[in-house]
Amino acid sequence: MMIRKRFAGLSVLLAIILLLSGCEGGLRSETIVIPSSEDEQVADSGSAPFQVKTIYRLPISDTKDDQLLGWEDSGSVLGLFQAPDSKMRLSQYLLQRLSPPYEKFETLQGVDADHWNLELSPNGKYIAGIKKTKDGNVLKLISLSDGRETIMATIKPRHDLLLTELTWSDNSRYISYLVTDVATDVASGPVSGQTDVGVATNPVVKMAVYDTTARQVKVYPLKGLRNTGSVSEVKMSDDGQSALIVVQNERTISISMGTINGSSFHIEYEHQAGGDQMAWLNKDQFVFLGTEGEIYEYDRRNMALSVLLEKVLSFQLSQDRKYIAYSQKDDNDTISIFAGKLQGNNVLYKESVYQGVFPSVMYWSPHNDSLLVNGRKIYSTSRQQTNPEPSIVSYNQPFIIKFQ
């Protein structure tokens, strides 16, 4: 369905109430709101456009295996990098820190977990990881201050199948993932490094949530999930009562939102998406990427779906959800990274801060004064060709944009 702007002088151009086709299981209608360009000029004396002060190139080799994990609370960058040892058949991965001016690594510790399944907490204090053992997949919580490990759970291969990787809530309290029942027939496990197992004929998908404060995990069966494809991610809200779930089929991706109700988890809202990017704004609102590059904001309180931005390739919210970084491609196939301030249903003070790199990941620093970017340098093929596509010319281009 095309959404067209009709009255440019109005603060809200169009409000359409749509009855979702095939609604069931408590899914309700929604209101789509498109703010006008005039709304973007809301006065805010406490903010100003983003201005780039310095670009720091990180001394990281061009390899598939090394990975940036994000920001430490102090403002340093943490990553997991290969440390070859001639006495070992396999290279060990070490946790290392890059501090300003981001020129030299400081080795912190080894990590006893599979390097492809590590997630740094938003506050930069813990790492959640998966360790494959003979008893199953052990889910670990590792403290970066003292290296202490906590076993959150063990996924036994003949009982449950781990469907997703581990995902932190924005306040670093909850770690969530999805599991399902298994059978004796052999099939490929969705998570890298997982033992091959079979899925039951009528599997029950369950959401597991580990509370780092209570130090316990709770499991909730999912109810009302209409899209029964492959679930790929689940993210808890900061209050631990709601979650967003990404479901992928062969041709479509959808975002589902639901709430914990007693001992189970009930889906309340579903929408087709253009990717797996989604984020909570607060316990009642979340944003996600639409099929045509829109960034949608959904508010469960009034069932309103607002369009924040259009023609977006990727985005990342700051930890306090006050700012947004996003990428767009212009008519000349140039990809640019923008930064702006979130206010209501608008993005204010949008400024281009970098060009020529397609960001695979972006991380805001704890104080919102820097943006860590890892992406791929691209160039455009000849515009005389039919349907020219950008071409990748290098693997990783990690750098930090420091704002004034």
Explained architecture:
- The strands form six sheets. Strands 12, 13, 14, 15, 16, 17, 18, 19, 20 and 21 form a ten-stranded mixed beta sheet that branches.
- The two termini are 42 Å apart.
- The chain contains no helices and 33 strands.
- The protein has one domain (12-403): Methylamine Dehydrogenase, Chain H.
- The chain has strands at residues 12-18, 30-35, 52-57, 67-71, 77-83, 92-98, 105-110, 119-120, 126-133, 136-143, 149-155, 160-162, 167-168, 174-187, 197-199, 205-211, 216-223, 230-236, 242-248, 253-261, 264-273, 278-280, 285-289, 295-299, 304-309, 312-317, 323-329, 335-343, 346-355, 357-364, 370-380, 390-392, 399-403.
- The protein has 404 residues and is mainly β.
- β4 and β5 (77-83) form a beta hairpin.
- Helices cover 0% and strands 54% of the residues.
Keywords:
404 residues; mainly beta; Methylamine Dehydrogenase, Chain H; ten-stranded mixed beta sheet; six-stranded mixed beta sheet; 33 strands; disordered N terminus
Short description:
The protein contains no helices and 33 strands. It is mostly beta strands.
Task: Annotate the secondary structure layout.
Layout: E1 12-18, E2 30-35, E3 52-57, E4 67-71, E5 77-83, E6 92-98, E7 105-110, E8 119-120, E9 126-133, E10 136-143, E11 149-155, E12 160-162, E13 167-168, E14 174-187, E15 197-199, E16 205-211, E17 216-223, E18 230-236, E19 242-248, E20 253-261, E21 264-273, E22 278-280, E23 285-289, E24 295-299, E25 304-309, E26 312-317, E27 323-329, E28 335-343, E29 346-355, E30 357-364, E31 370-380, E32 390-392, E33 399-403
InterPro entries: WD40/YVTN_repeat-like_dom_sf
